[in-house]
Amino acid sequence: MKNYISKKNIIIVFGFVCFAIASCQKKDYFNDGGLSKQSDAEKNMSTYDFLASRKNHMFDSLVKIIDLTNGKALVNQANITFYACPNSAVMRFQRRFFPSDKQAPRPLSKIGVDTLTMLLKRFILVNDKVSLERAVADKDKAYKDYNTDSLVIHGISGITNAGSSVRTGADYMTYEHRKIKVKDSVNYTAGMQTHNLITANAILHVLSDGANFSGGFKLKYFRINDN
User: Fold this and answer.
1) CA–CA separation, 33 vs 43, rounded Å?
2) In this structure, what DSSP letter does residue 225 have?
3) Model confidence over 45-54: pLDDT tens digits?
4) Which of 132, 128, 118 lies closest to 214, judged by CA?
5) Taking the model in full, what pTM does it have?
6) Cα angle 150-77-92, degrees, rounded to a multiple of 5
C-alpha cells in the first residue's frame, strides 16, 4: 500500500512539473530556442524604430541602407514579413565588391541606390505575416517578394519521427530566393538566428550571421564559398 501511494505521489508531482514547464513555454519560449524578451513597448514600435533601437547595434548597417534608399515606408508598411539582415550579412555583401579581402569593404554610400533598394525588397514579403509556426505547418510554400521575385519559405519541424509527438530539436525556417538568370549568381538560401519578432506592422525573422544581403545577386566579384 505504501509503495502504491509513493508511486502515485511521484506521478502527480511529475505531472505538475510537466504542466509548469509547458505553461512557461507557451508564454515565453520561442521555438528556435531563445526567449522573447520583447516588451509591449517594442511590439508597438514600427519596424524601422525597432531595428534602430537595438542596444547591441546589430542592425545598424541595415538601418543605414533603409536611410540611403528612403526605404522607411517599405519596412513600415502594414502586414509584411521582413527577413532582417544583421551587420555581418551587410558586411559580407560590401566585401564582395572587391577581389581581395585585404581591401576595405565598399562603402554603402558608394553602392547604387537602385541596387540597394532592389535587394532590400528581396527580404520583404508583402500582404502576409508568416510566423515560424505557420511555416512549419506549410513545410514548403512559394511566395513573391516586393520585387515579385519567387521566394520559397521552408519550415522544418523539431519533431523528426513521423507519427510522433516527441520533440528532438527546435523548429526553424529557411528563406530561399530563386535565382534569376543573368541577374543572379546562385539560388540563395539563408537560415535564421531568431524567429517571430513582432512590431506594430510586421513579423520579423533575423537571418543568421552566415547570411548575405546580396541575396544571390551577381556582384563584380563572386566567390562560390561566400554565400
Assistant:
1) 20
2) G
3) 999 999 999 8
4) 118
5) 0.80
6) 55
